[in-house]
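Lay summary. Proteins are chains of building blocks that fold into shapes, and those shapes determine what they do. In this project we predict the shape from the chain. Here is one chain we studied, written as its sequence of building blocks.
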Amino acid sequence: MILDDRRCELGEGPLWHPLRNQLFWFDIIGKRLMSTDGQQWQFDQHVSAAGWVGRETLLIASETALFRFDLTTGTRTDLVALEADQPQTRSNDGRADPQGGFWIGTMGKRGDADPAMGSIWRYYRGELRRLYPNITISNAICFTPDGRTAHFSDTVTGRVMRVALDTSGWPTGTPEVYLDLKSQGINPDGAVVDVAGNLWLAEWGSSRVACYAPDGTFLRAVGFDAPNTSCPAFGGPDLTTLFCTTAQQHMTTADRLTLPHSGKTFAVADVAHGQAEHQVIL
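And here is the predicted shape, written in a compact code that computers can read:
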């Protein structure tokens, strides 16, 4: 069940690269990109999420930019600034959409101590557009298989929202509530949608990834031996393995000793059939 023993202070952004059959993920606080072949790349600023552009190229979100990253040479080429004039914010959750765009959320570096400092953005064919401002902790960015609906969350609200998309992947209309988990004390974190349209949501502090039907009905949950589940992804040869990053952030020394697998990356086979991660079109 433990995929990788390396502990992340804040694991995030798992990405199954369909051309490489390889999982990538981030330790945001550790400022590093990691992969299942044991490699890791160290950066000088926070990095949090990625999409695949080609076999050797990722689009990576950092605290100041979206950039192309060459996995062979380690070369970074900036594409567009991302809140580079706001040193108090960083990127967080992000994912490519079915139309080839890339959605990325930002947030204050102090989390809920920096209310409404973040936003949710979309990068599409060279254009970066702010979609939703006044976000405290951006999360749960994911898309239905038909490309007609996007989901996102501001974790502090306890709600996951959804919004209709046009044929180019831009939102139309006003977001509506898909899940309201506030009364249950559930903290929505990263999410992904499977081929059946069910949403798999990492619930921070709950040691699980929960599955919800398109109408919001709770279906089941997969448990993990770490309380702070942060983001799921589907992958493996048949896209039926559920991967999940976790975090040690905000845990006491005693908690870290009691829960020694916190911060590790997990994998559970034969969970559901996931979508292949979509290619980012630059």
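What the prediction tells us: Helices lie at 253-258.
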